[in-house]
Design goal:
Layout (H helix, E strand, L loop, with lengths): L1 E6 L16 E11 L3 H9 L1 H7 L6 E8 L6 E8 L5 E11 L3 E10 L7 E15 L2 E12 L5 H21 L2
Length: about 180
């Protein structure tokens, strides 16, 4: 379907190990349509055994470990990255869950391989909406982020697109 990012700042992107002198914010919206019922797509987000199989961008990236306490105020944490190098950590909380309709999370992403060992890259509020669409699912993901380091709105949009494409592949393989 579609994906786009809108940055509200035009500051230059810092190099690794540097931080922005001011807050850089962006809203990214990524949409996909899946030919499976909403309940099945929603379950892929809620079930840790499914989530770990698809929730990482890039063709060779994987989720090395995750914790999903799928309830309001429950923890959502994942270590991910290239196989053998899970250098990124996403750590947050579920802020709202409406079964088969909506998931809202708030959290931060860290680069745990940086020399400091835990460089915070961004803070995000993410809204995932599941809409019934002629027996399938129209998914709308809206990411509101503040970027502290080298990651950009375009990086985030590309990453979400890859993650949602992996979800499509995962959904085709389950019955």
């Amino acid at each position: 379907m579609s994906e786009h990012a809108v940055s509200t700042s035009t500051l230059p992107t810092p190099k690794k190990n540097e931080t922005h002198p001011r807050a850089v914010t962006a809203t990214t919206v990524v949409e996909r349509r899946y030919d499976v019922p909403v309940a099945r797509v929603f379950r892929a987000w809620a079930d840790p055994k499914q989530y770990i199989k698809w929730f990482a961008p890039g063709g060779d990236w994987v989720v090395a470990d995750c914790e999903l306490d799928f309830r309001i105020h429950g923890r959502q944490m994942a270590f991910f990255g290239p196989v053998g190098e899970p250098r990124f950590k996403s750590d947050g909380r579920f802020e709202d869950i409406v079964e088969d309709r909506r998931i809202v999370t708030a959290g931060s992403m860290h680069d745990i391989a940086e020399p400091a060992g835990n460089q915070r890259m961004s803070t995000t509020i993410c809204v995932v909406e599941f809409l019934e669409d002629q027996g399938g699912t129209h998914l709308i993901l809206t990411d509101h982020s503040v970027f502290y380091t080298w990651e950009t709105a375009d990086d985030r949009s590309k990453g979400w697109g890859e993650i949602l494409d992996k979800l499509a592949t995962h959904l085709k393989g389950i019955h």
